[in-house]
Task: inverse folding
């Protein structure tokens, strides 16, 4: 598996080394952005080369070093991590393309710092994706929080500082307060933190202790934004839009739900959890988050805020699906990481494009904008359809699996939550689409003509919306990966 | 004569002898070179001793060939060899730094005195660590204390005089208590040798004079190690001392006092006497927690960065004491690991703050507005050390926190686990005060011409910052030595 080892290391090292290159090219924007794009393409090539190995049942990995006796920083690529790494590396390319247009179009400052931190955040995300044990995952999880802090507070204003405080306070707070004790406790009880199919806790913990540990993990992974620890996501809306896309689609929240899935599947084991009544609360919390966040989104007039609450709700789809514990819903959870990523990044790209071209941020200002920015708003429509779960958008597939799992497992309350939330999703997305295409432009707006956003942004959002559609049609590699989660080769 | 045999004596004699020579030389450069040579030699010797102890186990050296328990014994085991390496290593880094930093902070005619005092302080601290004799320990404690009062008083700010005076009073009370405690022990046993005391006391641990000795020693040493609530002298002393002195004392003085406490508790009185017959466990637990929370909270509201991080030191000492209170191998490992980790972190931090003083002339938060624009590297270094104080993975502080949490879990005390992590969130609050001031505020107009710290200051500081990161990644040295030392203290290993 020498080739596999090298590829795993390369996938992790590429963005890290790339960030140095980007920093060195800071003086020359053309070169710096080329460096970003080249690194991103190489990274995608790396992850794609790993894909056949993982599909064939291989688990390429590398053991870096032991931090404490028995606690190693080690990587091992399994299907779920492969999925996450593919999402992160593929969307990084598109996001970089988009960033170039956005950062130039809005004449942002400190662009070198932005690209450097971005690359480092991707390195941390790959570290999370390939982590072979909870310990490694925790290390990169914390690093990701710290690296994204300068991105969230990019503007350096008081508002950015306040958003940064909430962001850091909640993410560091939950991870220190809950995740770290959970990790040490796991190590104390099981003597290992390795991700193992079937879990490492069976027979070692039961009853209240197991439920409590699950709670520590679920709330400790603050990036999954389970209520009541969701406030950091809307707080981070002060960041430039490419950063929001990074947070919502590429790395951060995906790292959160990914960690949730990893912990449920490989630490607890779905079978261990299924026999315990003390873990049922998770379905309730996730269900509540789905509905409550959708209701808040319905009322939000700021477009990015509406998208943020939609993300909180969609993340809990993944948590809910994992909590149902049925094999079908676990597949659905894994797929939903991907489909939500491409759908949500499209929506954020559109929001950023609207801001760059028209300087509009509120939903109520969007009347008739579809006529001026037809490409952007078509992409937005596709993203919205995907989030609602209407074919032919990718979101339909993951939702289908989650709902089948819920039905098969007899979780009719969960099924009801999913249906209600689908209606709510429709209720907060479709009016935007309607207003953009069918309402007339507001009076006085004709005097400020604007067209589409810069070309690179439009290309980026066309790419992601195309991906949203094509994932619906060509979902078989994803499905193959996800199925390995429940029926290992 | 075989030099290797006499390494334990040379460890002390070299820095001790360099002090009066430095005064006699009367030349700044010559004094610096002499003391530097002695310090680096001491560091080299400590490494050799550490290697030797790792191979052959604890070693004993009879001063003047008077066999213990009649003569003075120098004893090097896992714990003392680690501490010797730590203290002399920090000194070896701080001394080159001080040459550049005292140019700005101390009048030139006092420079030779500074080097002499530094050498004295170093030999005192090393002496406490290496000696196997209770009275000798007191003598070395006084050598290091008296020289550190004088070192603090050298500060440019006139408040350094009151700070030094405050420390003098508190430190003298502490030293008096210690000598009373040692006297009582001598009264009961007729011996001053620590190992011998340990053997003889076993039969009489519940005797009133022995308990009184324990009480005097505990209070006396706690004053020196700034255990809450006996920490009042520390913030001012660290804040107004010359930069190099702040860094050196913050990294070593309290740590060596912790060593003395461990030595008396575990090697002299014995773990059973202290933790099973007396409620010391609860007492130390409460004081440690109070220190962690009160001092961290006070740190959040400081406006002077040196005071802020001085209060953080009091809080971090709380972690160290907390580890002792667990009375387990894991707990003591946590204590000893944190001893080292906190020493390098705080040492680096105070060196960087010294560079900030050199750059912008002060370390109040109001002055440091926009510091990251003019001194980006130094600011980043301070943030890195701050992350270690918080206990972020990848830094040394994380390793200590890991063992503390593990020790609490071994005792099944979940509430303690949450208190430990909760207090690290207070560290986030005070570290982020610096971050927000340095990175989000616009620099003041008079900072326009400020440059990054000169290499003479930056290199030593970054060596310690590097060590902070290194000990967060490769823990074989810190955790390996610490767990060996913890096992030795608890009698689980030779």
Result:
């Amino acid at each position: 598996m020498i080739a596999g080892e090298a590829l795993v290391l390369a996938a992790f090292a590429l963005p890290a080394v790339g960030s140095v290159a980007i920093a060195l090219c800071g003086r020359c924007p053309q070169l710096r952005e080329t460096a970003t794009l080249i690194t991103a393409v190489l990274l995608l090539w790396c992850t794609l080369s790993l894909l056949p190995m993982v599909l064939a049942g291989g688990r390429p990995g590398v053991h870096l070093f032991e931090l404490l006796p028995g606690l190693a920083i080690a990587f091992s690529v399994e299907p779920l991590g492969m999925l996450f790494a593919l999402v992160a590396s593929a969307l990084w390319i598109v996001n970089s393309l988009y960033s170039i247009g956005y950062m130039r179009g809005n004449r942002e400052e400190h662009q070198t710092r932005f690209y450097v931190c971005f690359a480092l955040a991707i390195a941390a995300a790959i570290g999370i994706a390939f982590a072979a044990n909870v310990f490694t995952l925790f290390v990169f999880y914390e690093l990701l929080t710290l690296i994204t802090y300068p991105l969230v507070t990019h503007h350096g204003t008081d508002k950015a500082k306040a958003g940064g405080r909430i962001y850091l306070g909640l993410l560091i707070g939950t991870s220190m307060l809950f995740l770290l004790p959970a990790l040490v406790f796991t190590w104390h009880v099981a003597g290992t933190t390795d991700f193992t199919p079937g879990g490492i806790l069976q027979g070692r913990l039961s009853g209240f202790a197991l439920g409590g540990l699950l709670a520590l993990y679920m709330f400790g992974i603050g990036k999954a934004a389970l209520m009541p620890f969701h406030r950091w996501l809307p707080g981070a809306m002060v960041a430039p839009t490419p950063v929001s896309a990074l947070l919502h689609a590429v790395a951060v929240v995906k790292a959160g739900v990914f960690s949730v899935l990893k912990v449920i599947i490989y630490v607890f084991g779905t079978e261990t959890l299924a026999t315990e009544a003390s873990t049922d609360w998770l379905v309730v919390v996730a269900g509540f988050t789905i509905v409550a966040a959708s209701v808040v989104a319905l009322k939000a007039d700021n477009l990015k805020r509406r998208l943020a609450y939609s993300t909180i709700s969609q993340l809990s789809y993944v948590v809910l699906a994992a909590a149902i514990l049925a094999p079908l819903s676990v597949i659905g959870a894994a797929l939903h990481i991907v489909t939500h990523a491409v759908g949500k990044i499209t929506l954020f790209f559109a929001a950023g494009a609207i801001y760059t071209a028209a300087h509009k941020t509120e939903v109520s200002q969007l009347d008739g904008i579809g006529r001026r920015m037809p490409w952007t708003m078509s992409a937005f429509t596709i993203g919205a359809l995907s989030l609602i779960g209407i074919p032919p958008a990718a979101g339909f597939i993951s939702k289908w699996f989650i709902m089948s799992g819920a039905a098969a497992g007899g979780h009719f309350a969960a099924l009801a939550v999913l249906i209600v939330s689908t209606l709510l999703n429709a209720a907060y997305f479709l009016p935007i689409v309607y207003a953009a295409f069918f309402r007339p432009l507001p009076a006085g707006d004709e005097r400020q003509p604007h067209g589409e956003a810069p070309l690179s942004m439009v290309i980026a959002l066309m790419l992601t919306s195309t991906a949203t559609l094509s994932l619906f049609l060509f979902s078989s590699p994803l499905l193959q990966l996800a199925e390995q989660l429940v029926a290992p080769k | 004569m075989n030099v290797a045999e006499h390494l334990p004596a040379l460890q002390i004699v070299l820095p001790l002898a360099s002090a009066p020579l430095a005064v006699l030389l009367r030349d700044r450069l010559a004094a610096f070179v002499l003391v530097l040579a002695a310090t680096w030699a001491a560091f080299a010797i400590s490494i050799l001793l550490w290697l030797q102890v790792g191979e052959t186990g604890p070693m004993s050296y009879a001063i003047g060939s008077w066999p213990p328990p009649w003569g003075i014994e120098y004893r090097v085991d896992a714990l003392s060899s680690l501490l010797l390496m730590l203290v002399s290593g920090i000194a070896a880094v701080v001394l080159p730094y001080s040459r550049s930093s005292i140019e700005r902070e101390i009048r030139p005619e006092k420079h030779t005195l500074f080097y002499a005092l530094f050498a004295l302080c170093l030999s005192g601290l090393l002496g406490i660590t290496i000696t196997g004799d209770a009275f000798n320990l007191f003598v070395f404690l006084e050598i290091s204390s008296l020289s550190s009062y004088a070192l603090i008083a050298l500060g440019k700010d006139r408040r350094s005089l009151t700070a030094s005076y405050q420390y003098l009073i508190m430190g003298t009370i502490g030293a008096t208590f210690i000598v009373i405690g040692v006297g009582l022990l001598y009264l009961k046993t007729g011996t001053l040798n620590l190992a011998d005391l340990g053997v003889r006391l076993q039969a009489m641990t519940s005797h009133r004079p022995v308990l009184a000795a324990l009480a005097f020693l505990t209070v006396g040493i706690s004053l020196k190690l700034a255990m809450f609530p006996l920490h009042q002298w520390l913030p001012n002393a660290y804040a107004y001392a010359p930069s190099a002195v702040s860094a050196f004392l913050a990294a070593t003085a309290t740590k060596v006092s912790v060593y003395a406490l461990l030595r008396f508790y575990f090697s002299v009185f014995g773990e059973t006497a202290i933790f099973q017959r007396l409620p010391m466990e609860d007492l130390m637990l409460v004081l440690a927690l109070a220190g962690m929370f009160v001092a961290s909270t006070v740190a959040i509201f400081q406006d002077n960065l040196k005071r802020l991080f001085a209060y953080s030191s009091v809080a971090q000492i709380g972690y160290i004491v907390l580890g002792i209170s667990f009375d387990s191998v894991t707990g003591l490992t946590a204590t000893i690991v944190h001893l080292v980790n906190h020493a390098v972190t705080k040492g680096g931090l105070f060196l960087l703050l010294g560079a900030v003083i050199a750059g912008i002339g002060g370390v109040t938060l109001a002055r440091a507005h926009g510091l990251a624009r003019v001194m980006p590297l130094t600011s980043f270094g301070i943030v890195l050390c701050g992350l270690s104080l918080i206990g972020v993975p990848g830094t040394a502080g994380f390793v200590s926190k890991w063992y503390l949490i593990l020790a609490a879990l071994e005792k099944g005390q979940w509430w303690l686990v949450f208190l430990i992590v909760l207090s690290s969130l207070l560290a986030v609050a005070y570290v982020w005060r610096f971050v927000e001031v340095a990175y989000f505020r616009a620099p003041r107009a008079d900072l326009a011409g400020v440059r990054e710290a000169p290499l003479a200051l930056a290199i030593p500081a970054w060596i310690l910052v590097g060590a902070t990161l290194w000990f967060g990644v490769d823990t074989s040295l810190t955790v390996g030595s610490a767990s060996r030392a913890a096992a030795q203290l608890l009698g689980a290993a030779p």
The longest helix of chain A spans residues 158-190. The mean pLDDT of chain A is 84.
